[in-house]
Each structure stands twice: as structure tokens, then as C-alpha cells.
Batch of 4 targets.
Target 1
Amino acid sequence: MSYQAEEMDLRTFFHQNYQYTIPRYQRNYVWTEKEWEILIEDIFYAVKNHQKHFLGSFISKKSNSSSNGYKRELIDGQQRLITLNVILFSLIYLLKVYSEKFSSSRIGDRIEVLSDFICFKDEQSVEEVLKLNLENDEYLKLSELSLRDNNIEIYDAFFKKKDTISIVFTYFVEKFRKLLFENENNLDLFINFQKTLLDIKIISITADNYLEANTLFEIVNARGIPLKTMELLKNYLLRFSDDYKILDVENNNWNEMLGNLSDANIDCDIYLHHFMQMYYNYTGTKDKMYSFIKETEKASSDENKRNLFACLVNYHKLYIDISQNYSNIRLYEYILLKKIRLLFPLVLSLEIQFKRNILSKKNYNHYLEMILCFMIGFNLNKSTTNNINPYIIEYSHNIYLANNFSTVEKEFYSFMKKISKYYPSNKKMKELIKEIRYSNKNKTAKNINSSVLKFLLQPRYLEITKGEDWLDYNFDKMNVEHILPDDMVNENTWKIGNLLLLSKKFNNKLKNADYSVKRKKLLSYNEPYARNFAEKNEVFTEEKILRETKILNDYIFKTYNFDVNEIDQMNNKILNQKYISFIQKNEKAQEVYYTKGIESLIQMFDNMEECQELKLEGALQE
């Protein structure tokens, strides 16, 4: 690896006639008051104790153009270099403000010294060149004011603006005003601060190409906010784009993605982890993601790397939809309710295939319903997710790679077959449902929380009130009410048949009243399920609790039963040798199978067999 590394102070670094540019793919300026405060404290500590401060390394790449030999692309050090330049702007401003208080020649000398660190003269064009060329209007205006204008009133506009650079500038102006200029010896203190600032030690590392620069960037732990894997990945992937117009678009798309994930309170590295499980069949941990991608993509074409970039950006909105359940899908609601994030790669792969029109709406909904039914039984059985996580990763990858419906179908049913061994038997499932208990009085008896209970009962309530168009249940704002009072020792009062879902406001009116009092209020309640219940139960006893419990238990089993027989039958059909042979010998059969799946293929096969039998019968009759 060819690079030059040199230890130097900031004075030497700024006196070099190099212009540093920040690549478009780099993250935005993200330092906040926390980082500014730490930097200032470190410098003043060095002033007080006559020490030298070390600010880490700055990594840059040489320009490829001989005519732009003074240009360097800054790969690492963006946050610190922008901050240092704004510090210079703020110090120059304050010197201008306090110029009347001191000898104008001393002030002029100080301003000239600091200005020399902001720009230099190009030997060929004799034009002034900014040492940090930042594509930011406010930064460029401040640079111009610092170098040219002594009219401090022009600066006033910056103190009212809310853009990042103006906020940083305002912070340092106020900070240095208090620390350096509001005492008798302020100019001497300023001179000591300036000297300590410029004496700060750094290591300047210059590489010949992007590969070396980015390799060094990963190795060196410079001062600053730790980069997330997604930020490292952005730097790595965008360097394979040479077209600046495309680079701008891709950079904006990436930043929009990070903003969308942040707005949805999603850690971008968690999204990346789930994406990689689907995209690569990645089974590693989050801290190894970047090294895995680099190693995997090392020999791949630039086009493949750009495809990875595009997929990450394109699929993030689908991921957000799943994580926020914007589509109002029952499975997604349950995933969020139970915090089953390990399912995200699988449902993302199905969502992608649906958006690709490989999965029909009917099959897509059916697959999601099957996963939901499995997970409800799986959770009621208190099974551990470690058992199914490897299968989720493997088959989310296989489904994602599929380019036709038959492959999606085959992989999905193969996945369901693998995990079906962790689903309780029908007998066990009925027992688990029968054992559902909910009590606020006896916490040890309670084995289900109100959110899951409301989720299980939702379809029943919606089914009973079907056709009531005006009705809009908000189950999040409903409470679980015990019809007969919740009792510390009476098991029957904990059973599901003794429970009603009611609005919190109405539930508070009932409190612990007798059933006769509750019934009168329920009859007047503007909600069909509760009113229906009161109409058919003039009195309510423990015997009726048992009857209602049986009805609801049977309903829950029927609604959420995971049909293991369907899984076995579908896998047997897919693997049936006669259908495989039929596909191999018949082009039309291939088309039907790839686009419509095994059931349509079997229908075609049966129809053709029937035709052949009719032809054979006709030939025999002749």
C-alpha cells in the first residue's frame, strides 16, 4: 500500500498550499454542541497546562489531474476540518468587533495570520483558493466575509439563520466572546489560545487512490462520532460512481433513505442487518457486516456494487411499511405487538416479490396468513425463536432470489415444512387456547397480556358487527373488562368467556358493578358486540362463562389454526416425479408452472390425461 504519513501541527497543515474538497458521498456535517464543547475544553486545558493537543489523523487522496495538483479529496476528517475553519471565521469576526479596543496594527496582524489559514494564491492563476472547498452557500459567504469585509453589521444575518454552518458559527462566536474577550487581558489570552490552537498535532495521511484511502480510513480511529456501518458502506459503494451528476442523485437518495429511517425511529444498521440476511443469506452479527460486504464484493463488478446500493435504497420504504404497518396487515401488526423482528427478512422478501408482480395478491395474503397462524401457535407454546431463525434467514434469501412464482412457492412451502415441527399438535394447540387466563387481581394466574388478547379477539368482534359501516373499532383504545368481577381465587373469572373489549371511557363507567347494572349500561352502549352480548344474556353466571369460553376457544382455534396437512400436501405435489417429468417434456407446462404454480400445473396435467383417455376410448370403439 502506497501512502505518505506525516506528523505536523495545524499551523503547518494550514500553510500547505492544498485545497481539500469533501466527496459528495460523504455524510453531512453532524457534529453538535457536545462535540464542539469537548474540543474547546481540550484546547483550553492545553492552554492552561502548557501542553500540546492531538486531534487525530486527516486522510486525503491526491488529485488524478496534473493541472489540479494542489487538490486533495478529504476521506477522513470532514467534521473536524469544517469545525476548525468555522472557529477561524468566528475568531476573525471577534477581532473585527473588538478592533477599537486594541491597537489596530496588532488586530490587523492577527486577522492576517488567521486569513492565511483560510486561503492561498494559486501560482498559475494568481487567484485566491479556499483551503477547504465546501459546497455550502453559508460557508462560502462566511469565507468571503472573513477575507474581505470589515463591516461587522453584515454578519448579523448569520446569527438569525438556522442552517448548520450559521448555528456552528454563532456557537463559537458566543463561546469565544465569553472565554477570550470579556476580561482585561483578553488579547494576551487570545494570543495564547491561537498559539495552542495552531500547535495542535495531527497526522496527515495522503493516499494515491480511493482503495488505499478507504482502507486507511477503516483502519484509523480518528476523533469524532463513531460511524455506523451504513455510513461506512455509503463511502465504500459511492466511490464506484464516476459520473458526478449520478453521484449527486445517489448521494441524495441515500441521505433521503437515512432520513426516512430516522423519522420512523429505525436504526439504519438494523435495517442493513435484515437486508443482508435476505440479500446475502448473512448469518453474522451487526459488527461484522461491513467486513463481510467488502470481502464478498471484492471481486464483483462495479455494476454489482451499484446494484447493491440501489437495492438498499429501493427496499427501505418497504421495510418502513412493515415496521410501521402502514398497509394495515395483520401479520405486521402481530410482529410489532410481539416485537418479532427476526421475521423482517422473510416478510421483506415476500413484499418484494409481491411488488415485482411475481406473487399475486391472493398468494401473498395467504402466505402472510400462514406465517401469522404459525407464529401465534409458536408463541402460545412458548417456543424459542433460536430454533427457527436459521431457516428464516436461509429461505428469505432463497425467496428473494426467485425469478418466478413456482420457485417462490417451492421455497416458501419448503420453509413452512422445516419450521412446522416447532408448531404444537392440534390437541396441544386446543389445550393452550383453553388455558388462556387473564386477571388483574391474580398476576401469577395471568398468562396473556391485554394487547395479544385484543389481537386474538379482533376478527370475532369484526365478524359479529359486519355490515355496521359506521363502526370504526380502535382496539388500541379498548380495555379488557371482566363481566363477572375479577376474583383473586376463582379461576372461572379469569377465563376468556368472562371478558369483553370495551372503550376505556365506557369501561371506567362500569367499574366493579354487578352484572345487572352492567347489563343496563351495555344495552345502551353504542357498540354492537357488547350490546348483542347483553341482549342474549339477561343473567350471567359461571356456567355461562364456561359456555362462552368454549365458543371463543373454538373460534380462536379455527381462525388461527396452522394447517400442517396443507404444507405436507403442497410439498408432496411439488416434489412429485410425474409432475417434474411433465414440466421437463412440455414447454406449455413449464410456462404454466413458472407463472401460476403447482396447482395450475396439476389442473393442466389432469385435463391432458382426461383428453388422452377420451381419445383412447374413441380409438377402441372404432
Note: The two ends are 86 Å apart (CA to CA).
Target 2
Amino acid sequence: MKKYIRWAVIAIAIPIVLFLILVVLLYCPPVQNWAVKRVASYASQKMGMNITVERVKLVFPLDLGIEGVRVLQPNDSVSGQTDTIANVGKIVANVQLIPLLSNQVEVNELSLHNVRMNTANIVHEARIKGNVGLLLVQSRGVDLNSKTIRVNQAQLKDANLSVELSDTVPPDTTKTPVFWKIKVDKLLVERSKALLRTAGDTMAVLVDLPKLDAKNGYFDLYKNLYRIETLNWQNGSLNYDLTYKPRTDGLDPNHIRLTELNLGIDSFYFCQPELKMNLRVCAFKEKSGVRVNHLSGHVALDSTRIVLPNLELRTPESSLTANFNMDMNAFDDVNPGKFYVSLHASLGKGDLLRAMGGMPEGFRKAFPNYPLRIDGVAKGNKERIAFSGLNVVLPTAFKLQTTGYVEKPMDARKRKGEIFLKANTYNLNFAKVLLDKKLQKQVNIPSGIALNARAKMQGEVYQADATMREGGGSVQLKGRFDAHKMAYEANVKVKSLALQHFLPNQGLHPFTGEVEARGAGTDFMSPKTQLFAKVRIDRFHFGGYDFDKIAGKAQMHNGVITASLQSNNPLLKGSINVNGRNSGKLIKAHINTDLAKLDLYNLHLLDQKVVASFRSDLN
């Protein structure tokens, strides 16, 4: 009996001893190198690559170090050449043994050192290539049963990666659920860069990360939920280029280069479609010269609403605060939501000129050295938009105040609205620089223009009532235009308006008079066009000529044309009458002239004092 027991013990002990011997041998460097070479050779055959390992070291229990890993692949274009898929200086994997017995993985260190990589055509959706100085992960909480990972620390240093997307692969419509949940206590990225190029090289995005750190992240891959408590990006840069778009001066939205970029985000939360975060700080400098010293605010966005309750922006010259709240359906046709925005801004000269871009040097110099101030509130939806307290002020140049509303702005027949405008101008001569140089000498924009205006619209009917005052003179305008019928009415009364203030050195003098017109249609060669117009000049001198007391009127109706002109001033006394008919292709008219007095001398037609009278009939 003892004999059988002894043989049974021996039979059981032999595999155990063999296993222990095998384990002991695995910790012998010669055996380790032999085993790794066999595994590398087998993997090379199966993958069609050349995989080599210089040396391997396994220290009890599971502290593995591998050096000199190279993965080569035959070039798919040039025969006899190979592409380096990966060249890894060192791999370290230090895993605790005992937790593995209960499906727990605790990684003291998993790191890759001095990595050069190029995925070539292994990943069809994209090619990833570049260098990584160090990739380090410490995780003492991987639970294979509950599918959770606790990453105590993750580091990426001295990386320079390029990702080139491909458009030749159809999207993968199959969905394999991933139930892992990942917690990251600390993430650190240093001295790293990443370049993304889209298919066809239509867009390139380059990110420089001298230092980026994040704390307390949580990522649920099944729910697509991502949370980060704190993220900081220091002294970075960002390049965005639409490769085939032409470059323009000033701030070019197709070619953006941000440097000295500092970004701080707290309480980041994203779970489709909801996004929330506190933008604690954002500062950068753009290649156009635009510099943002501070940008902050809470952000809340989902499929129904976007909220920016305390947006704040500061540059060396400008500042802006805003409160923006909008329902995503604010402009829907049925049951629209609402939007609200309040704005307070002070925009410096430098920022304004950079935003304008390409302005003449003379305009840039003459533009006032004061900030443009904008304040106002707007609210509503697709049914009704109202704005109030909208004030725009550029000191020494102009001041503008407006308020009003628009109902159903997208419906041409049902829209309705009313706008009130009050404006005052001061020195606007900087705007003359935009005119032709010859015209600059002929035109002037006087200081002290005051404008009060009211505009209304009802469907396709527009009305305006405005008064402009300048230098003791005034212009009163009342008008109405029906866009559907192409019908119009206008009345303009001018009193003592100093035209010489607008057109100096032209021999002009103050003008007093009135113009009235109403009609329908703008094709004056059409018999269907209707017009009734009256013009009266009460007082006006030009270049030594007296044009006082001149009146005229004209009428077109059903192809019949009548017009008359009466003058009663020292230069000209008499009348001119026109009667005609428009057939659509030809105008026939009878012109009757009866001038009782024609002062040829003061009209500078003769050198001697001659006064004549004149009558004529012309068909």
C-alpha cells in the first residue's frame, strides 16, 4: 500500500516540480532570451513582419523589462525595402502577482521609452507616425469582473505624433459595446506635439503641449460619458489651416495661429448631447496681432439649449461681457423657443482695425484713438425679435441709439416691425479716406449732424419718417414703399440746408425747398408706369446764379405725360410746359416755352446787359 502511495505522490510531484523548474528557468536570462526569440519568430511568420528583440529581463514575480524591440514590414511600393513600424528602446511592465488570483490587476509601472512608430497601412482609417520619449502608466485598480480601471498616474513626454486620416475606408456600422469605466487620478503631458491632417490634406491642425495636466478624470466608455475635474494647458500653441483657402490680411478664420496659449477648465462634463464646463481662463496671441488676455465663463450646452451666463473677454485694448441664453428651437417654425442676449463692450482701435483687415494706411491713422462702446439687449424668437437700449458710441466721431422690434421677420407678407433711431455725428473725416483722392478734396462730412428717424414695416410695405439737422438747416423726410406693387410715396422738405458744408468750394449756398413724389413702377419707358412729382425751390444760389422761386411738376399716367416748370426770379421769369405720350417704344411730346424775362448778362451768356423774352413751340 505504501508503495502505491509513494508512486502516487511521485506522479503528482513530477508536474509540479517540472512547472517549478520551468518557472525558475523563465527567470534565467539565457532562457528568457531564447523564449522571446522563439515568440518573436513565430509572431513574425504569422504577421508577415520582421520582429526582433535585443534582450529581455524578468524579475520575480512579474517585473518584465524588454529592450531593443524592432518591427519591420516590407514596403508595399518598393521591392526589397522595409518600413519601420515600431522601434522601442525599452518596455517595462511591473505587475503585482497576488491580485491576479482574484481577477484584480495592479500595475506598478507600464512604460515605453524612446519609441519610434509608423503604422503605415496597418490601420486603414489613419496613419500614425512619430516619436514618443516616454509613455508611463501606473494603475493599482484594474477589476476584470466589474470592468473598471483606476489609473493613478499617466504620463506622456517628448512626443511628436502625426495622424493622417484616410477617406478610402467606409465607416464601420457595426457596434461592439464597451463596458469599461476608467478613472484617472493624474495625467501629465510635457514637451509634446500632435499634428492632424484630414483626407486630401484639406485641413491641418497642429497642437503644441509644453505642459498639460489634468486631475480626477472619469470616462464611461459605454455611456460615452467624460468628466474632468481640472485641466490646465500652459504656454501652448495651436495652428488651424484650411490648406486650399487663400490667405488674407488681418484676422483670417481659415488660417489661425495661436501662441502663448494658456487654458484652464474646471468641472468639465460631456455626455452626448450635454456639455458643461467652467472656462476658468483662456489667453492667447493670434498671428494677426489680436491678443486675448482673458476669456472666461460658464458653458452649458445640450440638444435643447445653450447658456453662457457670464462670458467675459479682455484684450490689451478691449473688454466685453455678455449674457447669452438661447433655446435651440428659437428659430423653428412651430412652437419656437426663445433667446436672450445682453452685451456690454468696449472695443479698442487696434482690435477694430485688425478685425477690419486691409484698410488703407490713411484710414488707420485717422481713425479716432478711442474705444468703440456697444451696449444693448436683444431677445425673442422667430416670431418676434426685440432690441432695446442699443447704444453705439465712438467718442469724437458719432453716437447712435436705437430700439425696436420685428415680428415674423422671415415671412415677407406677414412681417411687422418698428425701429426708432437717434444719431449724432461729430468728426467723421476719417471716413473720407475711403473715397477716391480727387473726391476727398470735393466732399466734406460736417460735424454736428443730428438724425432722428422712425421706420415701420407691415408685410412688404415700408415707411420712414426722419429729420436731419445740420448747421441751422434741416431735412424732413417722409416716405412709403410697397415692394409688392412697386408703389412709392415720398415727401422731402429742406430748410436752409447749407450745401456748401457738404460740397465746399463749389459755389453752393443754403437750400430751401420741397420735393414730393408718388407713383408705381420704375420703368419710365413703360406706359404702365405712373408718376406724380412736384419740386419747389424757395431759395438757392449757385455759382453766382439765383435759382429762387422755381417750381415744377410732372405726371405720367396711362402713357400720358405732362410736365411744367415756372420760374419767377431776377434771372428767369416764365414757364415751360410739356405734353406727350409714351407708346412703350417711342415718346412723342409737345414743348411750349414762354419766357417773359431772360437776363442773358447775369446768366453769363453775353458780355453786355441784355434782357430778352422768348417763346417757342416744339413737337
Note: The chain has five helices and 34 strands.
Target 3
Amino acid sequence: MKYNILNEVKLSQIEPIGWLRKILENERDGMPGHLDEIGYPYDLPCWQLKSMADGGFEAWWPYEQTGYWIDSVTRVALLLRDNEFLQKAKSIIDESIENAHDGFVGPEDLKKDTTQCSRWPQAVYFRALYALWSGTGDRHYLEVMRKHYLLEYNKYERDRDGVNIETMLRVADILEDSELREKAKASYAEVQKNAKAENMDYYTGNMLSDVSTYMHGVTLNEMGKLPAVYYSAFGDKEQLKAAIHLYEKIHKDHILPDGVHSSQEKTCGNDSLKTHESCDITDYTWSLSYLLAATGNGKYADRIERAIFNAAPGAIAPHFRAIQYLSAVNQVRAARNSTTAEAFRNTPRMAYQPHHYPECCVGNIGRVFPNYILHMYWKSAGGFSAVLYGDSVFTDDGYTVTQSGSYPFGDKITFNFRCDNPKHLRVGLRIPEWCKAPKVCVNGENKTIVIENGFTFVEHTFKNEDIITLWLPMAFSAHESSDKGIYFDYGPLLLALKIKEKWTVDNGEPRQTADFPAYDVEPESAWNYAVTGKENPVIRRNAVSDDPWWSGYPLEVDIPARIINGWTTEIVTPECKDDSEGINNKQVELGATEIKENLELTPPLPTPEFIRKNIDEEKTVTLVPYGCTHLRISVFPKM
């Protein structure tokens, strides 16, 4: 867009290799690729239908949920160049377009319904159509969205309906369509007017205030990024300022050590027992990409990578067989009766299951890694910028760049250029804030590093086989949490205690199949340790497999720690209250699970007095990357 510092490249220009390709293959072959076999609403026709009643649907939720899934399948298939898998999503999309006789894509019920969120499902679903254009170059999908959005009765004036402005502006930019651009501008004005009248946190006046935000996580991200999108199209700096300020408030008040803000379903602070929805791993990182594009500030990429390398794999069972709906940085059990979030204690949301109620997270989690890969390379002044790192191939006009180095498990990254002819380029390289001694070479020659806005730039006439080498030395560091515990980082990786895990199938859970079971995970080794925060580590960097999160440990760090006697799990009687969306009989009929047995919960950090009275012998413990764990202590009590 006109006012962006960075602009997206097409999906067709990027191909993942190494572990990034493997994780997409796991996704294709795992739970996300088979949701249509696992359960409601993914096992039913939805977007293909002319009426919600034809599918037995009573509201828009299944369209949002299946929209997430169709988008994830589309992106994974295109990045893997897997045409057979692509047909799973594309056949649904094409049928829904065939049914759009007057241009309205979606069921007749939503066309007639102009209440709040009746247009929100298309905001989700149309990302898949946009990805099809980005991956194939077929402008038909852009024209379909343009026709839909310009229908007179389609209004985008309140709450999540306004998220459509994001895609309206992107499509208008590509098609150079002034009519669509003006409709988006008018819609944004209505969204802000209504947000002000309703005193919503995403009203720009509230975004600019210093009052902390407590709001539904998905709504906060989807609406909170819109001022940045608006700035990118129209250059209104006050809108960008509002988006920046909102995300700084989120970072200060709600970010957990694994890189994602709390969301139970609302943001709720950042102590070590707070959880976040898997939906928000996707939505937070997606929204940050708009601030990254608008500002060109590398700190947003730092935040994206922290979430992707920690929160994302930490919420996913090995080889993408199941996920958690809610996950936490401290969780010593992940079972049907282990949910610590008070409002949801009568649900199995912290268990690793192939399906959850509500059904949004199992569809949305599949967008996390494709979106990371899509945002690795960006167009920038004079060439391109490598913004997010990982083994991959990037192709542009007359040249191809192959990135290697197994990042984030290796700290030496190489960019090998293949050029049809000599090509003069200005190449941006992000220097993460955690890296204190970066080094850049071109063909073995050291280059002076000047860091501006989180980037250094290499200007060079590249020839075939030229190489940029970037070193980002990683270091072990200790930090204090908001609840006075200690957590440890190694570069972009959060570290967690290595706990022996026992996985058993939860035979009482209805939402599972023989191929994709629901699991209870219990600890088989001690976890009740305390640290000082001044430990001297012994660091072992091991061989990196093509599946490093779930096959071996690419990094192990030994530190001394001391047992705290009596710091154990807590037994609680479930209050069996309905959650904010309600577990009613209809949902139980559809497979939602209500927990009635006693709960066994991860405890809060013990008090200093309790630690002093119960501290025991010192032992050597091993820390591993957070994303390699499913049970974990990441925030340790401080001695």
C-alpha cells in the first residue's frame, strides 16, 4: 500500500524448506488437514450451501470457524505446491462463488441479516480468496471480492464487520479501484463513530489513552490493527499512532513470556498462570504484521518470532495431532480436568485434543505457520528485506535467494544468490533487539553494521553464487516475571524445564477419532524447583532434525535448582458455571464436554516465606526450548 515502508510479496514467491516445510507437512497430514473427518462444523457442508438452514446452522459461528480452516488449508497447500491438497479448499471456494448469483458470497441468511457480525465471516473467508490470488495470480478471486463488497446492502459499520475493511483496501490497492477504496474509507468512519458511541477499546480515542485494555482477544486484534491498515492506505498518521499505542499497552500489560497476550477470553494480565487462546497466537501475529508493514520497525518482527517460536509449538501436540484451546507458560498437567482459567474450569480446554468447543481455535491454529512464512520477505526501497528468518527460497525479478541455517536453532544464517544477470539490490536484514553482537559479511568480507529501526542494509551488485552471511549470536539471559518469578531465554527462545511426559488417550472425550485421539498428559518427573536468576548455564547445542520441535531437543541447558517441598498441584471442585459463550444442551449434543469430576490444577508461584521454609537440596535440571514441551515450568519461583 502507498504509505507502507514494507510491502508484501506474493505467496508464490516463497517456498519453505527445512523444518518450516516439515511443519507444514505435519499440518497437512495431521489434525488441521483432516478436520473435515474429525467433527462439527468441519464435517458438514457450510460455505457451499445457499442457506444456513440447509446445514442445520442457526448462527454465523460455523462460517467463521470453517473460514479459518479453509484459509489455512489454502495457504499450506500453496506453500507446499500440493495441488491435490489445495482442491480440498478450492472446491469449496469455487462452489460458494458459483452460488453467488448477485455477487453476495455466503448464505442467503447472512445476506438478509444486517445485525452485528453478520458480515464478519467473510472477513475471515476472503483471506483464503486473497491467498489464492497471491499463490496463483488468478485475478478472478479479486474481482469476486470486489463485486461482493460493492453491493449496496453490504454494510461494514460496527464491531468485527469492520474487519472487512482490511481486505477491501488490499483488493482496492491491487485493482486500483477508487470506488472500493472510498467505500472502505466511509465504512471505517462509521466503525469509529459507533466504537466511540459504545466506548469500545478499539475506538482510537481509547487506543491513545493510557488506560489498560481488557477485551476479547480476537476482537481486540482484529479491530485494533485497522487504524494501521487505514494509515497504510490513506496516510493518516493519527490512526497509526493509535494502533502503535494500543499494541504497546497490550505488550506492557498482558504479554506472557511465550510472546502472546493473555486471553481468557478477554485479556487479563500476565502472571504465570494466565492462559491464552490458540486463536490469539494466530491473530496477534497477523495483526502485528500490519504494524510492521506500516512502520518498518523490526521490533514487531521480534515480537512475531517470539510468539511463533514459543507459544505456537507449545500449544500443539507432536506432529500436529492435537492442540490446546488454552495454554500457559506454567502447566504441569494438560488433561481434561486441568484448566486453570476460572471461568472455564468445567471444560477440557487445556487438554491436547483434535477438537475443542468452541470450534474456532482448531480451525485458526493452522494459519500460524503459513502466515509466518508469508511474512519472511518483504519489498522495501531498492530491493527486499529479510524480516523473519528460517530456511526458505525467495524468488523475485531475475534472482533467487536461498536462506539456510536452521534458525532459530542456529545463529549463522546464509543467503545464497542466484542471478540471471548482475542485480543491484539494497537488502534489509533484521537485527533482533536481543542480539548484542551481530555480524554481516558479503562473500566473506565484513560489512559495517548500522542499525536503523531494527534493520541493517547491504547495498551490493549481486552476481551468481554471491553470499550474505548474517551472524546473530544467542545468549542465555534471566528475566523477572510480573509475579516475581524468573524465566530464562536463549536468543528468541523461551526455555522451560524438561519434564518427562506420560501421554494417555482420554477415552471419555467424544471429539476424537482413532487417527486423532484426545490426550491427557501427566508428569513423570519432578517439576517443583526454584532458582535464583543468577545461574551459570552449561549449554549443549545438539543436531537439528527436520522436525526439531517434536523429534529430539536441538538445545539443552543445564542449571542448578532446588526442590521446594510441598509445592504441589491443587485439588479443586469445579464450579460448573457456563463459560462466556455458554455450554448449553445444544453444544453438548454437538460434542462439547462438561467436566464434573474434581480438578487437579497447576499451582501459582509460592510465596517467598513458603520457599524459605520448604527449600530442599540442590540438583541439576535441564531446560529445553519451550516449543519442545507440553508440560512445563517456564516461570520458576525465585529463591
Note: The longest helix spans residues 61-80.
Target 4
Amino acid sequence: MSKKNTIQSFLLATLFVMSSNNYANALNTDADSIGLGGDLAGVNNAFSVLKNPASIMTSKNGNIILPLSPTLSFNSDSLTIKQISDFKDIFAKKDVNSISEILSFLDKNNGKIALESNVYLPILGYSGTPFSIGNNKIGFGINIAGSVFVKSNFEVSKVLSSGFSSTFSTVNDIKSKVESSSTKISDISKNLKLPDLSKYTSGSFNIFDPAQLKTASEDFGSIQKNTIEPLITEGENTLAEFDKITKDIKGLLETFSSISKDKLLKGELIADGHAVIGVSGAMDVFKNNFVNVSAGLTLKAFVMPSIPLGDTLGKSVPETLVSNFAKTPISITADIEADKFKSIDDINTLLDNDVKAITDAGKELMTNTKDLNTKVSSILGKINQNELVAAVSESASLRSDFVNIQTIGTELTKKVDANFAKNITDKIQSSLKEDLKGVKLNINSVTDVSPVGFGADLGVQAILFNDLLLSLSLENPVVLWPSKSKKSVYGLDLENKDLSKLDIFSVLKLMEEGKAQDYNYNLSEPFAMRFGGAYNLAKITPYLNEGKLVADVEQVFNGRPLAFHLGFEKNWNFGLAGVSLRLGTQLGGLANTYSVGLGTNIGAFNISAGYSASNPIDPTNSKSISGGLSTSVRF
């Protein structure tokens, strides 16, 4: 097996480490924000406190979040849901060769893929202003929710992805291609029958006998058609195949020659499920006839049960790596690195010597055979033109020409005997094994996460002229969640292994395991900053009474790009009941999306539904999709 094929296997192992049954997106807490394009800063409802505690001050008497309010999200920068389903099937097969398809896709996306998903389920919540100090109302809220979060993102070196997605499958193909070409050369040489030309140079041949002349013409025509021309055709095809083998391998080696000590692949997988208990407080910090500024703080406790996964994993995780998946949460960062491929020079020398010797001998055989073909064509022409004496004279040298070709063919057959392909493969394996010792899979995993962690959210909100609401929130600027982190280094144990029959998981060996270090776990609760607002459109035209425009800018500090959300909401009231329509879009983030939402209220009871996708018409071909249902009571 070639170095390329072995690293393919190694790469598959790492990609497998980073694959999971759920994939991912930003946290949408309610259906209203989904319908408004993901906007959170400008939304003012029962769920607003989950992102900005200062919003409690605009909640009138109070809100209660009801349990039937789930949201689900998926988001990717490059893969659609259908493509993920297809690639999951490839991962499940653990087929080394099929990894080229994934790497080809990665190459088209600059070698990067980011995936996130989230399921958010509020269990119960209250927010309102039940207390007062003097004339100042004090906001209070308590919310309990469950969250399942999965994040996976990885980056493959451009050199690696373009090299692996090349048309030449693996260097290991040398063996099969050389075997095929060698067989053809042997067959050609064996079928090179030496014709009996003695009768045309003996006294018994009568150049004036029409019957003998016809026989001579047929004999020479048969020699040309059945022996010489097939030899030329097969020989040139075989030489072309040898040429292609050499060029393809040299092209591949050229790609890998640019790899020195570099990270060939790096990525991370985070998966956990935990409960969040938040207690919020808020108050007005500045208020006059034109401006009302509020500030709020939420103190949070994260409760995460540790669930053993050993029995549920089955054979989906290699035994060598199973300790990294022993229990939830799963938090792994991994990379593959390799030293400079010193075997490139050895393989180039092999091509320039062993394979070139075959092609040179083949070219000599073709040159002589073409000369012979020209001579036979000349003899046939002379026979057909009754230049019989010249034809007989010229045919006298054919025997020595055939003998010369046979000699070259015999020597060529010896060079490409049954051991030729094996010898070449053995030389490549011998050269590669030393290099492969320098290929390492580094895994950093988080272990022993405390069942309880703590965090905080900060928020400021301002209402200007009763028409414009501005909001700034900092989510998780502080998270304290004790855990341990350790580094493991895996290598390839290739002692007495045949690379052409290598099962990557059977040779993956733990080479080094570091000591567990103290680590603050905040990977599923990243720091996020949002700024935005909402504008009452009734001031512009009475037709937009109960209408508003919302917008915000969101930056989540976990590798996700900046996102801009824009939404429009219009309410129609009919006595104690009302209907709301929401439209929105997200620009940036992991994908651009388009969204729609509907809501209704009957008295104090509110119910809303929201849907968002990068391809709303065909969700399976969407890179991003979110949906949610929200229920609450406002009083």
C-alpha cells in the first residue's frame, strides 16, 4: 500500500473521530427569532430574557414560558443535509478509497467544513417586574431549559486535499498496472512467431509461377497483419500505459514534495447535553421623557450528567480510540502531522531506473518492429508490381530482422517477469515505512467535566422616543466549568505489516499519553456578542401600525463568522385575539438563510412557529435549516 493510501486511512480515522450522529447551528431560543431571520437583540417577548436580561424591564407585568417550546437548528458552511447523509454512509463503510470523494469536495471548499447543531427545550420560565424599590421597578426572572449541542469543524491542508482528489487513485496502483503491462509485453514476445522464409530464398521457388507468387503475397501479408501490426499496436499501448504510470506517480510525488512538517488536517468535535438554570435581575439605570436605559444580569448554573457511552458505541469507534468516547460530554480536537516525505527521492529513482529500463527496451522493440513492417510493406509492393528479383533479394534479410526482434522481446520478458511488479512494490513499501513512522495523529480531549458549572450573561437595553429599541448583550463572558484536558499521540505500528493489505485501525497505536491538566470547559457555552434593535414603523405610515423592523449583528467566538440578521413583523389585532406574520434573513454566519414565521394570541396565551433555511423550497438541499414552536403566557 502506498503512502498516499496509508495516510488516506489515517485521515479517515481522524474524520471518523470527528463525525457524529448530529450536526449543527447557532442557538435559536424561540420561534419568533427564527421567523425574523435569527434576530435576537430586537425581539421583545417572553424568551428575550434568555439572551438579554435587561429585556425584562419591557415585559409589562410578566411572562411565563410553557414547556412545549422546542427549537431545532442545523447549520453548515458547505454541506447540505443530503450531502451529510451521503457522507455519513461513506464514513460508516470505513472505506479507505472512498475518502477521495470527501477530499475532492473539501478541495472545492478550500479544504474547510464547519457544522453545528442544537436542540433547545425550555422547560419552564418566568420573567417580570414583581418588585419595586421606591418608584423603581425591579425585574426578576428564572428559567430552566435543556440544550443538546454538537459542533464539528475541520480543515484539510490544500496540498493534501488536492493531492488525494487527483485522478490517479493511489501509488499502490503501480502493482496492478505494472502487472497488467508486464503480462501484455510477455504475451507479445511469446506470440512473436518466426515465419519460415527459407522457401523464398531457395532454388525451389519459381518467381515466374503465378500460384507461387500468389502464395508469397499471402504469406507476407499474413506476417504483416497477424504478427507485426498487432505487435506495434499492443506495444505502443503498453508503452503509453507505462508512460502514464510514470507521469501520474511523478505528479503525485510533486504534490507531496511540498509537505514538510505541517498540519495535514485539524478539527474538533464537541457534543454534550446539559440543563441551564438561569436567575435574572434587571432595573432601569436612566430614565426621562425621551430615553429609558435598562441593565440586567443573569447568573447561570450548567448541570450536565455524565453518561457512559461504552455499551452504546458498539463497533462505531475503533477500540484504540474508544477511551476518548467513554462518556459525555465528548470534546476532542485532533490534527494529523507528518515529517518531510524523504521517500519521494527513492521512488523517483525507482521510476527513473527500473521502470525507465522497461520503457527504453520497449521503445527499441517498437523501432525495430516498425522498420520490419516498412520492409515487409516494401516486399509486398515489389511482389505486386512484379519486381520479383528485388523482392526475393530484400526478403533474404528478414530472418535476421525477426531474430533480432525476438532477442529484444526475450530480454524484455525477463525484465518484466512475474516478480517485477512485486519487486517494485516491495521497494516502495520499504522506502515508505520509515516515512510513515513520522505521521502522527494528535488528539486533545476534555475529560472529567464537573457535573455543575457556572456562567453569566450581561445586557443593556435602551428605548428612545418610544419608537426605537436598542439592545446590547454579552452571553457567557464568564464561564467557570472545571474539567481536565489531556493530549494523546497515536502513530502507525507497521512492523512486519504489508502496506498493500493494511487495515488502518489494526495498526493505529497509542504512542504517548500526556498527563491530565486543569481546563475550563466552555466549548458548548461559547462567548457571544449581539447588538441590534427594533423600530416601530407606525411613525412612517399608519398602514404599518403594529409593524416593526428588527436587525442585529451577532458574533459568536467559536470560529463562526460574523452574522447579520434582518427581519420584519406585522401584527393584526382582532379584539382579544391577534395574528402575526414574520419575515427575515441572515447574511453571513455559516450560511445565508431566509425565514418565515406565524404567530397568534388568544387573550394572554401566545403560540408561534418559525422556519428558516438557506433553501426554503428544498430543505434537504439546504446548508442551514431551523425550526421552532414557542408557547407562552403574557399577563
Note: The first helix runs from residue 3 to 17.
